[in-house]
Fold this protein.
Amino acid sequence: MTLPWPTHWDSVFGRSAPLVVEIGFGHADFLLDFARLHAEMNVIGIERAHSPMTWAEKKLRKNPLPNVRLVFGEALMALHCLFAPETIHQIHLNFSDPWPKRRHTKRRLIDTGMLGVLVSRLKPDGGFFIATDITDYAEQIREALANIPGITNVYHPRPWHDERDNAAIVTHYEKKAIAAGRPRYYFKWRRTGEPALQPPILGVEFNMATITLHLPLSLEEIAQQLKTDTVHQYGERIIKFHHLYQQVGYPKLALDTYIEEPLFQQRVMIGIRERESHEYIVGLEPIGFPRVTRGVHDAIYAAAQQLAALHPDGRIVDTKVRRPG
């Protein structure tokens, strides 16, 4: 199902209860054990990889838990878009990918930007817990936490503990670290009443958008002439056109489009549909549950501009998009 921004989680669960989120649940051992031990809480797991989602879904089909929901997506985007500020009771990040190679450390999930969004979503007095078994990652986390306002270290003056508070719940990777004798680092921080960092605003979803073109070319001629692999940039928003597809049996083309904007990326199809002779409708195709963001409006506008430029008489007749700016 497609979730609204932000999501009203009480409606999704069918009850009002403290909201707990685990980011990157992997094998889902911690997620499901936590949900079983805390039936009084609504528990959400966020995961970006297909395999963990499949594993978790199989486990839930075998042993259903009514207080668990799974979200497939990037953690930063999910936190920013699906959760209103100050709505989460607890957040857990257990042994996220450490990207151990020096050239890959930028890919680590936990940094100041991520922590700023995380803290803004916590309720006052809400807690978040981070665990890793990589020493330099632990130091990076410690330094990042020191730069985040509105939180306090529960373990102060120590930066972390060496053992988990809730020892009854152990993750898959945690078991591996224990078996290998590696040190573990457990952080526990609490949201205070002080103001938190305000992350960039992605914005609400816009209405569906279309542009009507006058273009004296056939679909076949458009397919032959339209250049793909082009890039358009409007401020922080980047539009990349890739392949062009012709739908068999329909007077329509579909332009494979990648859209990158602050905190959110998506792959969509921009449709080019022949309405009548020399007139085309350019708009978003409902493939893959796209979100109608400002970037989508930019992509439709950029596609229409490229199309109109294919012929001296090409022009925009009508537009229902917000022009870049």
Observations:
- The radius of gyration is 24 Å.
- Residues 32 and 63 are 10 Å apart (CA to CA).
- The chain is about 25% helix and 30% strand.
- The mean pLDDT is 90.
